[in-house]
């Protein structure tokens, strides 16, 4: 990193590699190398008074990144723009060379608008590593200094993280297109160069859903919330989309919150399940708990109302509709439609009773002195069959355990 | 309500009444602008019959043409080719096949004449002395060929005219018949009162008023009123600016009924049938949930006393728990009113529960047609098998270890030489296959193949 008097910006890695870009930028007006003597900084550059070094610590080795920030949003914009200016400058130089003329030297102002380029990614990452190390060495000092009071740090850190997130996402048009094509390929859209220019009505339902997933993934999330992603799609496309989501979950190490009303889809995707009714979680547990040992009458009713490919039994619909929450019901909200309702269900709301470490349900049937209630026949029959299949000797290799807890 | 004992399938095939018959239906949509046209062949030669009282399921992915078939049957589109018969009366017919026949007849005739001319020349060259007789002989042959071709062309033209006539007039003819019926019924009354000019007593007056009413109904009668449709999206298929009463009674009003009391009574009856309350009649659709709106759609279809209901994915847009309610409702109504239902769906588990016979479609072609038990126990066509393997189950073990069978038409079939047809492998079980595949399937069935779905 050179001692440019203006903010210096460099990219360590390009988008698409697993640890993403590292953005190093220095407090404006301060020479690179980040002097950590804040008093000197303050006296030399008045602007620094308002500047705080914050970082989201991420190092190349442990897949972490270090980010530094200025305190003013517009400086961050400036830093992002300087990258664009670099491109412009290169183009301009190229056009001069094409014409065979000499490239005129940069004026001071122009040079001010340009970032310094690191020669190779290795060199840049090297510099960044040194910088991170320096910062790590001095971070306690930094945080202890009166300029950076403890209570400010968190909020400013968040702010900068947020701001920096935007900053390093500010890419040029060409880079954005490249990233977009990459993501489109990742979600399985064929011929992305052509489809890139098309309108949504030219896509089928499944493809549109893939585009939506691509949009969600473009900001490299850690948590993906899927709100009924396959409701309007038919079974083969639904299966493809679910397979895609599973694949992306494995590749990108995502956690997924999957919202749906289809228990078949839930059986496919979920490790932990929370069943909700009228704004409350009425039962939660692992997938095994919910499907093979359901305890809440609403879960029983849901399982009984699923048409099953394996049996001939008729499906038991749940009569009635969910309650109007403008006038919330007294007691258990499900009591009105509940075949197993007790008198107390109409008076008092049941608390969450713990069944096991992972499993809990909010129903008075689990109270110590409650009458015994068995789930409907459809449900018990299905559970028996499934458990019998489990115990049966497997001809193929056993199933692998899915590691990691994802909701 | 055990489906196995369904009376429809239990009656022998010869005694079952066919209520809807679709023959060689093709529906092509033109794409592209001026110049070369490309056809989107949405439905490509589909034929099936629906018997009275059964639930016929039409299953397939989106884009396979099942909605197009539903809309063609209900006459929202005019068929490009093939015919649709409802209760024996042809209500939709396309002419593309006939036009193609005419074109090809002319081409063949040309070819034949060219061949004959060439042969004639040869013979004359070979035997110049018999020129006159050769010429005469060939002239006769050419004339015969031309006559035959012209006859065929005239025949096809007549078919085209008949098709166009049926398309335009099937309802009118039906109305004319109904009017004739009514007139016959009241013949003596008309004669007595001299067509309403001379009334002897009060009874006659009342009777004549009744006659006028019946005549009005008959004039507006349509054969296609016996077919009603339930649409897919309960949000989009109901006019948000009409009250529920207006929505449900719209059909009656279109058919000439203006008696408010009668309409009110009928609407309340329908609301009761579908499980809503009379006080819902004056509300607007946005005050209802998805399941309730679908019930409104069902009431709207039922008020016309249809014999056939085409349900175009009626439960796909609803929650699974509401789906069960609507399916049970349709089942009850079918038993109560003796309806026949064409159920278009893509969710095989719902179809299995509800339908008697199921047809599977793939990109405009009918690939398998069988009674529902049979289809689930012995799915033969690879597309059917892939569809079944994609259905989600309520069991985490099977789900997480499931391997989905993928269907690739280019890899799974070789139709380069041997073209496929719809072949009846077992009585009632039709599969689209060529002869080699037919042999394979028969061998598979003989070896005791059971897919494991359903017991």
Question: What would you say this structure looks like, in words?
Answer:
The complex is a heterodimer of chains A (407) and B (455). Chain A has 407 residues and is α+β, with helices and mostly antiparallel strands. Helices cover 41% and strands 8% of the residues of chain A. In chain A, α6 (173-186) packs across α8 and α8 runs parallel beside α9 (235-252). Chain A is elongated. With 455 residues, chain B is of the alpha/beta class. Helices cover 49% and strands 19% of the residues of chain B. Chain B has 16 helices and twelve strands. In chain B, α7 packs across α8 and α7 packs parallel to α9 (290-302). Chain B starts with 6 loop residues before the first helix and ends in a 9-residue tail after the last helix. Mean pLDDT of chain B is 86; it is low at 1-5. The chains are: A alpha+beta (407), B alpha/beta (455). At the A-B interface, α9, α10, α11, α12 and α13 of A face α10, α11, α13 and α14 of B.
For the largest sheet of chain B, list the strands in their spatial order. Answer: 6-7-8-3-9-10-12-11
Number of helices of chain B: 16
Greatest interface by residues involved: A-B, 47 and 49 residues
How many β-strands of chain A, per DSSP? 8
Low-confidence parts of chain B: 1-5
Q: Which percent bin holds the helix content of chain A? A: 40-55%
What fraction strand of chain A? Answer: 5-15%
Structural class of chain B: alpha/beta
Rounded radius of gyration of chain B (Å): 28 Å
Largest sheet of chain B: 8 strands, mixed
State the order of secondary-structure elements of chain B, H for helix, E for strand: HEEEHEEHHHHEHHHEHEHEEHHHHEEH
Describe the SSE topology.
The complex is a heterodimer of chains A (407) and B (455).
Chain A: E1 10-11, E2 23-24, H1 38-44, H2 73-99, H3 108-112, H4 121-144, H5 150-169, H6 173-186, H7 192-195, H8 205-217, E3 223-227, H9 235-252, E4 255-259, H10 263-269, E5 272-277, E6 280-286, H11 287-292, H12 297-304, E7 353-354, E8 360-361, H13 377-391
Parallel strand pairs in A: 3-4
Antiparallel strand pairs in A: 1-2, 5-6, 6-8, 7-8
Helix pairs in contact in A: 2-5, 6-8, 8-9
Chain B: H1 7-10, E1 18-31, E2 38-51, E3 55-60, H2 66-73, E4 81-86, E5 89-95, H3 96-126, H4 131-185, H5 187-193, H6 202-219, E6 227-230, H7 244-254, H8 260-274, H9 290-302, E7 308-312, H10 320-337, E8 340-345, H11 348-354, E9 357-362, E10 365-371, H12 372-377, H13 382-389, H14 396-400, H15 409-412, E11 421-426, E12 429-433, H16 435-446
Parallel strand pairs in B: 3-8, 3-9, 6-7, 7-8
Antiparallel strand pairs in B: 1-2, 1-4, 4-5, 9-10, 10-12, 11-12
Helix pairs in contact in B: 3-4, 4-6, 7-8, 7-9, 8-9
């Amino acid at each position: 990193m050179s001692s440019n008097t203006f903010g210096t910006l460099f990219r360590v890695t390009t988008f698409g590699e697993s640890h993403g870009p590292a953005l190093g930028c220095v407090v404006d007006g301060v020479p690179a190398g980040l002097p950590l003597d804040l008093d000197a900084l303050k006296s030399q550059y008045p602007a620094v008074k308002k500047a705080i070094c914050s970082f989201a610590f991420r190092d190349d080795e442990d897949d972490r990144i270090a980010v530094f920030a200025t305190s003013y949003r517009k400086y961050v914009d400036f830093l992002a723009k300087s990258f664009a200016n670099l491109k412009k400058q290169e183009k301009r130089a190229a056009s001069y060379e094409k014409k065979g003329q000499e490239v005129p030297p940069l004026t001071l102002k122009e040079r001010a608008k340009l970032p310094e380029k690191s020669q190779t990614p290795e060199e840049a990452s090297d510099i960044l590593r040194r910088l991170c190390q320096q910062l790590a060495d001095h971070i306690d000092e930094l945080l202890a200094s009166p300029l950076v009071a403890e209570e400010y740090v968190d909020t400013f850190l968040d702010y900068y993280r947020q701001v920096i997130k935007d900053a390093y996402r500010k890419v040029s048009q060409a880079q954005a297109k490249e990233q977009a094509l990459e993501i489109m390929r990742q979600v399985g859209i064929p011929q992305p160069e052509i489809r890139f220019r098309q309108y949504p009505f030219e896509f089928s339902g499944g493809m549109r859903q893939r585009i939506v997933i691509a949009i969600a993934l473009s900001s490299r999330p850690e948590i993906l919330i899927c709100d009924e992603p396959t409701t309007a799609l038919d079974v083969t496309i639904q299966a493809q989309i679910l397979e895609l989501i599973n694949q992306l979950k494995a590749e990108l190490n995502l956690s997924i919150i999957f919202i749906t009303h289809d228990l078949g889809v839930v059986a496919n995707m979920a490790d932990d399940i929370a069943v909700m009714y009228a704004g409350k979680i009425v039962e939660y547990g692992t997938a095994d708990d919910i499907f093979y040992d359901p305890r809440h009458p609403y879960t029983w009713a849901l399982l009984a109302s699923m048409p099953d490919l394996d049996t001939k039994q008729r499906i038991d619909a749940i009569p009635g509709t969910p309650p109007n929450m403008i006038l919330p019901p007294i007691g258990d909200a499900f009591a009105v439609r509940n075949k197993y309702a007790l008198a107390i269900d109409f008076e008092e709301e049941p608390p969450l009773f713990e069944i096991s470490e992972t499993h809990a349900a909010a129903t008075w049937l689990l109270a110590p002195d409650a009458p015994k209630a068995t789930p409907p026949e459809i449900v018990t029959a299905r559970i028996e069959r499934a458990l019998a299949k489990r115990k049966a000797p497997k001809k193929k290799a056993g199933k692998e355990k899915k590691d990691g807890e994802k909701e | 309500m055990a489906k196995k004992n369904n009376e429809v399938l239990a009656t022998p095939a010869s005694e079952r009444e066919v209520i809807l018959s679709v023959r060689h239906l093709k529906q092509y949509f033109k794409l592209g602008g001026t110049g070369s046209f490309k056809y989107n062949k949405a439905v490509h030669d589909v034929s099936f019959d629906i018997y009275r009282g059964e639930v016929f399921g039409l299953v397939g992915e989106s884009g396979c043409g099942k909605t197009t078939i539903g809309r063609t049957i209900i006459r929202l589109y005019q068929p490009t080719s093939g015919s649709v018969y409802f209760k024996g009366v042809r209500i939709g017919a396309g002419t593309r096949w006939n036009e193609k026949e005419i074109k090809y007849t002319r081409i063949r005739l040309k070819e034949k004449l060219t061949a004959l001319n060439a042969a004639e020349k040869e013979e004359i060259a070979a035997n110049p002395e018999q020129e006159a007789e050769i010429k005469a002989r060939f002239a006769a042959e050419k004339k015969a060929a031309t006559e035959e071709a012209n006859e065929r062309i005239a025949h096809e033209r007549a078919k085209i005219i008949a098709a166009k006539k049926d398309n335009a007039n099937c309802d009118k003819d039906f109305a004319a018949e109904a009017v004739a019926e009514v007139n016959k019924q009241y013949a003596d009354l008309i004669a007595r009162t001299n067509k309403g000019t001379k009334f002897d007593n009060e009874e006659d007056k009342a009777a004549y008023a009744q006659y006028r009413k019946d005549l009005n109904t008959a004039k507006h009668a349509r054969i296609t009123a016996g077919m009603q449709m339930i649409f897919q999206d309960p949000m989009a298929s109901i006019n948000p600016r009409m009250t529920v009463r207006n929505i449900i009674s719209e059909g009656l009003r279109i058919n000439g009924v203006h008696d408010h009391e009668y309409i009110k009574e009928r609407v309340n009856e329908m609301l009761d049938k579908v499980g809503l309350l009379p006080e819902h009649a004056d509300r607007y659709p946005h005050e209802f949930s998805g399941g309730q709106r679908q019930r409104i759609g069902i009431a709207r279809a039922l008020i016309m006393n249809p014999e056939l209901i085409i349900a175009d994915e009626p439960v796909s847009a609803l929650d699974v728990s509401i789906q069960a309610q609507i399916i049970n409702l349709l089942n009850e109504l079918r038993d109560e009113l003796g309806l026949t239902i064409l159920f278009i769906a893509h969710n095989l588990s719902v179809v299995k529960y509800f339908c008697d016979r199921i047809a599977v479609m793939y990109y405009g072609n009918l690939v398998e047609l069988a009674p529902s038990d049979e289809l689930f126990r012995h799915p033969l066509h690879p597309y059917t098998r892939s569809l079944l393997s994609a259905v989600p189950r309520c069991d985490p073990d099977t789900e997480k270890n499931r391997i989905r069978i993928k269907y690739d038409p280019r890899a799974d079939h070789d139709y380069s030489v041997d073209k496929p047809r719809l072949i009846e492998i077992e009585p009632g079980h039709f599969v689209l296959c060529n002869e080699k595949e037919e042999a394979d399937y028969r061998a598979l069935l003989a070896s005791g193949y059971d897919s494991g779905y359903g017991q």
